[in-house]
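ok here's the first one, seq then struct tokens
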Amino acid sequence: MSQPPIDQPVSGQRMAPPPSHSGPEPIEEIRVTSWAHLLDVLYTGGWNAGLRRHRSPYVFRGSHDATFTLQTSLQRLGGDPAETERHLLRNFRKYARQESMQGDTVWDWLALGQHHGLPTRLVDFTYSPLVALHFATRMPSQFTHDGAIWRVNPARVHESLPAPLRDALAGEGAQVFTVEMLQSVMSPGRKGSSLIAAPLAELAALSESPFLTFLEPPSLDARIVQQFALFALPSTPELQVENWLESQPHAALKITIPADLKWQIRDHLDQANITERTLFPGLAGLAQWLALYYMTPPLPPGAEQDADTNLLEQNVDALDRELGPTDQVR
């Protein structure tokens, strides 16, 4: 994957010092009122005076439903996340061996599994605010309720990293980890040690308190490159990401997208070529893009409904079932 804009020196950026406080505070929320307002919020703070360029320090995640939390897909399975994770990764690696893999670390397998829908501790993010908007507006049946964009500052998040991880980032001049960088912090594999359990336990043991970091995956395929993807990586599978972010001043912002803006956003994204066709290369993405592009929106609430409109709403539901998961970078 090409070098992301966030992975640049941040000297010259003006960042207010975090205020002193006695405990976690709710994450700041903004409800946008228009397309122009939304763009202003998404792109604000991007000027880097040291570089004299606009280089946003943020990463983004889109959700079609503003009430959804940042719970991981592993946590949504229920049960003991740590125990379940070991079995999922071990068996995924066992049965996926025929797939070509450039690396064989647990970080490689976590990224590959997450990319293909395996429940993991990872949370999907993207460097692109427009890609995040796509995932908040890709399913028309979800246009009846508010959506959301999570905007997170990895530099703020990484202020809480244990020293070995902070040193690794500083040594590379980076703000997010690659698989190779993260593996370099771990102890060399010992004979008989578990490929899965040992490095995950070592990650958690780096700090007495759970922490969060960001991991940029290998360029597994065109899809992950097109989506400009990266993952939030909790140090333990039990860590509740949203609750943790509340304890980090100025690390996150939740942007609420009103339901009545979703069709307009969808149309602007289509014009900007942020679509299923470009983000999911292949015939399936092409077909889904065309189906959504040529769909006629339902009449506004209170307007006269006719048989064709009722049929359209049924077609919207059918298209949503074809699209699959809605709120994650896949």
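and now the second one, same deal
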Amino acid sequence: MFIDKTSYMEYNPEYLFAVGKLRVYERKLINKAALTKLIECNDFGELVSILSERNYSDNISSVERPEDLENLIFDEMSNTIGKIKKLSHDKEATNLYLFRYDIQNLKLMIKATKNSEDVNHALLYRSIIDTENLEDSIKKENFYVFSDSFRDKIKTIWLEEVQQGNLQEAEILLDKLWLETGYCHMKEREQIFLRDFFSVLIDLYNLKLIFRTKVMSYDQERVREYIAEGGFIDKAVILNSCNMKQEGIVQSFQFSDYNKIIKQGLEYFERYNSFWKFEQLCNDFLIEFVDIVKFLVASVSVLIRYLVIKEIELKNLRAILIGKNNGLSHEQISQNLGCAYA
């Protein structure tokens, strides 16, 4: 992957206010020092106090029990989405990225519907599509809340995968749909950084597909169907890697920017059958990538950059809470975290 940072320079005076606002938000992100305090604190009240000093003060009053912290995480992400929507002067590009959260809601609702479970609306993101309308469109199986281009493809996934009980396959194809749509849009609009950002996301999605093939009996036709196009890694390389053993895959990517993700992620996956290390390394890679434009742009790209950083912060917070609930040591919890942004 060759990155020409100068090609990412974007200046739109309409975003100067947004840049200033996001700088203020960034100062209250959970930095390394705060992350260490959260890991080492042994008292629920102390944990709440640390979070109240960060960007969580708006929602912290609703946290009375440890169980409330999961709702706090979703509320914080939903509030961040709301702030980004208000700061944006390019609704189309912003909404296209935010659509990933609607896809997450859709996957959660589909799973609940097919398993005859109630949907926990507290754990749904408040993004672009109203969640009640989304739920209604699923029950009616017409998906009227989506635009025409998305609706037809989602209907196809519903009929060919969900109705056949292939829920995991449906989730993979929904992710692919969002990624390829985002890439094509940014490419057509000549938004260079966001185009390349979606290319990176597509690469990471395709790399995860390589891991999946190690435990799932996908035939070649299925693998071809799952591979998303638009990444920096050629589709043929991904397809060939799906047929290789661990040593061959690592060797194929030894000179790639993704070498660390592949080597360490695959070793962990082979040993524990878990995507945890892979996901952690992907998050670290994304923070490094989006930080390229920290001082280069005044455009919609800064909004997407902040969303990425915030989402990874919340993943770290969730990992700390899970670790504490499972009685892990401070050292074990630290090992389960990705890097803090600040």
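notes on #2: Residues 8 and 293 are 7 Å apart (CA to CA). The mean pLDDT is 89.
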